[in-house]
Amino acid sequence: MSEPTLSPETRELLETVSVATLATALYKRGLRNQVIQDVRPVARKGRNMVGPAFTLRYMPAREDRNQLVEFRNPKHPQRHAIETCPPGHVMVMDSRKCAKAASAGDILITRLMMRGAAGVVTDGGFRDAMNIGELEMPAYHNRPSSPTNLTTNEAIEINGPIGCGDAPVFPGDIVVGDDDSVIIIPAEIADEVAREAVDMTAFEDFVLSRVKSGASIIGLYPATMDANLEEFARWRTENAR
Amino acid sequence: MSEPTLSPETRELLETVSVATLATALYKRGLRNQVIQDVRPVARKGRNMVGPAFTLRYMPAREDRNQLVEFRNPKHPQRHAIETCPPGHVMVMDSRKCAKAASAGDILITRLMMRGAAGVVTDGGFRDAMNIGELEMPAYHNRPSSPTNLTTNEAIEINGPIGCGDAPVFPGDIVVGDDDSVIIIPAEIADEVAREAVDMTAFEDFVLSRVKSGASIIGLYPATMDANLEEFARWRTENAR
Amino acid sequence: MSEPTLSPETRELLETVSVATLATALYKRGLRNQVIQDVRPVARKGRNMVGPAFTLRYMPAREDRNQLVEFRNPKHPQRHAIETCPPGHVMVMDSRKCAKAASAGDILITRLMMRGAAGVVTDGGFRDAMNIGELEMPAYHNRPSSPTNLTTNEAIEINGPIGCGDAPVFPGDIVVGDDDSVIIIPAEIADEVAREAVDMTAFEDFVLSRVKSGASIIGLYPATMDANLEEFARWRTENAR
Amino acid sequence: MSEPTLSPETRELLETVSVATLATALYKRGLRNQVIQDVRPVARKGRNMVGPAFTLRYMPAREDRNQLVEFRNPKHPQRHAIETCPPGHVMVMDSRKCAKAASAGDILITRLMMRGAAGVVTDGGFRDAMNIGELEMPAYHNRPSSPTNLTTNEAIEINGPIGCGDAPVFPGDIVVGDDDSVIIIPAEIADEVAREAVDMTAFEDFVLSRVKSGASIIGLYPATMDANLEEFARWRTENAR
Amino acid sequence: MSEPTLSPETRELLETVSVATLATALYKRGLRNQVIQDVRPVARKGRNMVGPAFTLRYMPAREDRNQLVEFRNPKHPQRHAIETCPPGHVMVMDSRKCAKAASAGDILITRLMMRGAAGVVTDGGFRDAMNIGELEMPAYHNRPSSPTNLTTNEAIEINGPIGCGDAPVFPGDIVVGDDDSVIIIPAEIADEVAREAVDMTAFEDFVLSRVKSGASIIGLYPATMDANLEEFARWRTENAR
Amino acid sequence: MSEPTLSPETRELLETVSVATLATALYKRGLRNQVIQDVRPVARKGRNMVGPAFTLRYMPAREDRNQLVEFRNPKHPQRHAIETCPPGHVMVMDSRKCAKAASAGDILITRLMMRGAAGVVTDGGFRDAMNIGELEMPAYHNRPSSPTNLTTNEAIEINGPIGCGDAPVFPGDIVVGDDDSVIIIPAEIADEVAREAVDMTAFEDFVLSRVKSGASIIGLYPATMDANLEEFARWRTENAR
């Protein structure tokens, strides 16, 4: 599981497509469970979060191992993860879909942003969410959760394979988030999926413009009538898509 | 179950009352479960959605029946429903309270709006919710859901009786949504309930104005003291309610 | 369980700290479950709600005891609670974590505000939430819920010990809510916790300013390096914290 | 809320009817929520549990108030409740539908039996359930739960009105449990409901005997054909029902 | 959707294989969701239930349409379904995964058995479950549920496509239940799946006999070592499988 | 995290105490979450399961990585785990509390038993549960689950730290299961906890014998009256406890 790279070209393409379109592109390949279920932006950013996954896994906290003193350990996995997540990556946290206590708070998430991360996702909740929402870096969670993460979470593994919101996440998989949700693209197919999604987006934009002009979706979406395919070809040329 | 009609007068009345007030009017008639549970506006509109219900029922998707190619069928029930929902109606989708995959996306919902529908409700989730929220037509769901609807939903029946968010919905029942939630009024009693709710709203507005002036609710809400009923009569005259 | 008082000094301190910080201060004392789970502001206020708890307990409604006529009783516990909650207090409602029907609506909550309450919390939902959100007084709930409270809730006890969102609440405990969530501080330790939280907040603000300047969290948060403690001392002086 | 009495005659009648039949009798009176949801016998007894409700309410445990030392207090509400529940009564525990920690264990439940109680119900779980199931006294819960009750439960009130499994329970209401589930009959109507349920049971037994002989349910259940009513009259005479 | 037939040969084969084996056979064909989730035998029968599906769909009950008097209608869909389910079929009920009120009781289920049905499944609960469990005909549900079905369920459609426990069910699909759970086999592939499952069962029985003799599963299950395939061939001959 | 050992003495002691008693012993040490929530015996054994934990972690299955062909890999983690779990150990599976698909089936569990394992626990479900329940080796799960584990589970890690039913489990921790549930004892304190639990059990047995003779629990449980402590001392001598 060596770290794949995300080419600048693919990153740029992925910034222009929606999670919904990517979900359909993966569905075509038999992948049905790549959208992280039941997470949302802490605050909407109006732009995509894109980057390779850098993962952190939490397990249920055992009280004797999770006193506040633990954070004094410079190698505490939660803090160590924050300090080692590579720039441009998205930190993805497996919090066992439990938002009863925090996955992290604003100090750690701000540090993550300062270190150049592209974003952060947890299937639990962030404390200080009101502050995290105001950061420039996108963050996604289930809901605000103010109790310290020690209450229920022990950070146990950095950058291994995890589940997040019932989606499988391998380190280096490409994470894309928009104002609706977050999806995980297997690293091996990120380039081709990105290109395909850009084409699909062009078609969807064409369809939407036609629908807004009063066209029926029958024969247009999908384009079972040849006339619509020809019109789409013209539209692409005219709109440089 | 012939299609009842919604008179322009009743529609107008229903645009001026809240779902909460309607819920109480139905409660008086022994109807306790008409509010669709756990749906919310994709985006708040500051006005009511009103119209007769046109329903669509989803069942769990069987993989061999739900490949992308299905959408090429011009009679595919999901697309056919969108193209046959009468103007002024609200499309209500029974998605079995499951938001793991989409009930529909922005292209279909935009088409529904272009065809003159009054709104759309699902007890699942919409993909492209960020776009659907910006449409003029109101839409209600549980939460954004980006996976294509084929992942878990097969549209199986148009305009039959359904459940939506644990509420019973018959085609032609009157649907009213405000910035809080959505309620189903049985078609047969929509006119009388609308009139009663307008009266109740007048009284509630009167009470609220009195409460804001410092009045106690005891004897006022409900108006067990005659003085309050007399004052309400004056208030109605003065305020042309 | 005599009514403790909240000193003006402590109230002022608690207006300046976050629920997250208070949660950590209570965690140090072995209290892990004081944050009310899964409630949120009806509308964000940008300031803290602070006050002693005045409680109301609901039990499941039995239909013969919960017809609309019950509200004509001037001693109906729900209305009586609204009219007896002392100024400056926060009304906390145990709605058994059920938002299928309302805990209260805008008329009652407005009256509560007019009587000088500091806020209101339910682990169910409010009807007329769109109006309650516009009141100056903060309100917290799970989600909007339009059905009248009689549908599932009977108000049964005023100002006894309750659970709210799985947190234990005793009358007179100090309630603090921010734009993320709500916490319950046992009355006996409110003063010391408030002071400690103010100190913790100063340190967190210092850390955040350092992190925003590019500092690593290792050695800083917590401050295991002496240099950071010295810098913090200087920062406090310079910033009059 | 003075303690009503359960006459020996009514107790005897209630020992011969099922919870299902009682639920229908209450449904006729507009009471739809009297069955305690999602509890089951710790072990099936093949006979009914019948008795007036004696209630115990738990609230979420606050750690500083719920150390093992608390049990040394002879007036600790949990132990005090066990020692004061009147003979012939059923102890009903409001455990907030949470089985993460125990509502009680075998020592307390054995003591309750020795004191002559008719049974015990919790909407949480019992520890030592394997032993409790072997007692002669019936017990109902959600599932076995081994953690000590202090972990999440503080006994806070004896014999007040409570919710149990979403059913409203007032002290003195009549509790009936069979091998399927448990129902709460309001004390005021227990006598008439018991008599009616006995008649209904006779009819159901008659119907079942006819169905087992090959009869259709149409016209028989309910008995819309007069011939069936006449036959039922004969059957009652012949079978001394 | 004409009614397919189940040949006596296929029925016989399906009586000898487990739901688990059938689930794997369907998994090979891309069908992942055919097991009805979270239902169990009312009582274990030690033999399989097999038959084509005859479906009944419930919607949420509207109070004015669901009084006890409704059952006097000889065409009431619930009773009509019981009286029209063909012999040898399994009645499958879509109760919207809600066991708060009954899907049916012992009188109806006994009548269904007398009419020759092969079994019954609901994703809700049965009342009189203690009696239904003693019938010879297999029955599956989520849990006992004593309230009359009118409380939350209105029978609305007979023999249409439904969901049951998140599995898609079309009339005529082949239903197989064992002591663990229930699966739905699409009618078109029932014959081939039955034959394949019988072969798979033979292999699994062979493997189990070898494992019980101490063999490792590596190379044996699946049989990647040729020796094991040869041994299996011998075993089939010797055991007439 | 080197493998701790379980002494024969401690194993023997742990075979004589209940999970409930162990839970209280751990509660005294501040450990509140060591009972695995919501698992139960596949079939009751009437004796304890005891052994050090050998763990297996599942993550959500990605379809392209989880076809049946994967099982041909002799190093597939699920099969490899079965073949490497040391004799006397309990295999504990983190199935993310999801029983929609199996954690394992009877062939693998039988092999595990043949290799000398002391038992197996999953917070998901077993397929072929009806067969697994008949094995001599104890097994615990949430409920039977017939779909092949590939449907939702990919075995990803052997013998790392995991969560199981919200309890933290480290390899080598001591697992004890009785007919009610399963608990995890941190390896470091297993010896002392075992000894303490044996003493507690003696006292509980003494108390139970006294309660069955009619004694009150006040002053006896806990033994705040000296007379009871003296009587207990005599009882221990007489009963050789």
Short description:
6 copies of one chain form a homohexamer. Helices cover 31% and strands 21% of the residues of chain A.
Distance between the termini of chain A: 36 Å
Amount of helix of chain A:
25-40%
Largest sheet of chain A: 8 strands, mixed
Strand content of chain A: 15-25%
Report the count of strand segments of chain A: 12
What integer is the average pLDDT of chain A? 96
Structure description:
Six copies of one chain form a homohexamer. Chain A has helices at residues 8-14, 19-28, 77-84, 106-114, 129-132, 190-212, 226-239; strands at residues 40-41, 49-60, 90-94, 102-104, 119-122, 125-126, 139-141, 153-158, 162-164, 167-169, 174-177, 182-185. Chain A has 241 residues and is of the alpha/beta class. The longest helix of chain A has 23 residues, at 190-212. Chain A is elongated and about 70 Å long. In chain A, strands 1, 2, 3, 5, 7, 8, 11 and 12 form an eight-stranded mixed beta sheet that branches. In chain A, strands 4-6 form a two-stranded parallel ribbon. The first copy, chain A, contains seven helices and twelve strands. The first copy, chain A, starts with 7 loop residues before the first helix and ends with a helix. In chain A, 31% of the residues lie in helices and 21% in strands. Chains in contact: A-B, A-C, A-F, B-C, B-E, C-D, D-E, D-F, E-F. Chains D and E meet through helix 2 and helix 6 of D and helix 3 and helix 4 of E.
